[in-house]
Amino acid sequence: MARSRNIRVKMEPPKEKFLPEALRNLQGVYVWVSHLAPDVEGLGLSREQLRREVTQRLSLAGITVLNSRDLLTTPLFPCLGILLHVDRGPGEPPHHLYSLEVFFVKAANLLADQSANSLNMVWCREAIGDVRQNQARETDWTALFGSLGELVGLFIDDYLEVNSGGPGLLN
Known about the structure:
The chain contains 4 helices and 6 strands; from the N terminus they run E-H-H-E-H-E-E-E-E-H. By secondary structure, the protein is of the alpha/beta class. The protein has one domain (23-110, 117-163): 2-Layer Sandwich (Double Stranded RNA Binding Domain), CATH 3.30.160. The protein has a 6-stranded mixed beta sheet, with helices on both faces. The longest helix has 22 residues, at 142-163.
């Protein structure tokens, strides 16, 4: 998959998926987006925009998106998380640097105590990049949404590979 010029992967994805079976046979996926700093929201970006972008991509791929009520009754608490940090870059013209992490967690019972649950991160990809102001001096989030789309696309690819009975998979 070709990367856009604005995405820089901090860490190459592992050659082998570390827990592919963890994505198998889920009833759906809940999308969680981290809180954004007030100054980032002041630049015109919202959690809801990010959540909408992710849920739309998942839905188009045929992955059920759970709402918060469904999540509480769904086994394993499957959650795709979006963590975003944005800082103002040095110099002029004004620009912002971002670090974006897309990760998947689900519940896991501890072997020693079956009544105790914890969340286990089973999939994670990260990217860094920058966003600039457009001619109207508004922050142009296109590069960020491009990075988000690429990372969510990687999750979708892995999810579909495990759930479609593709080559090399145990069914």
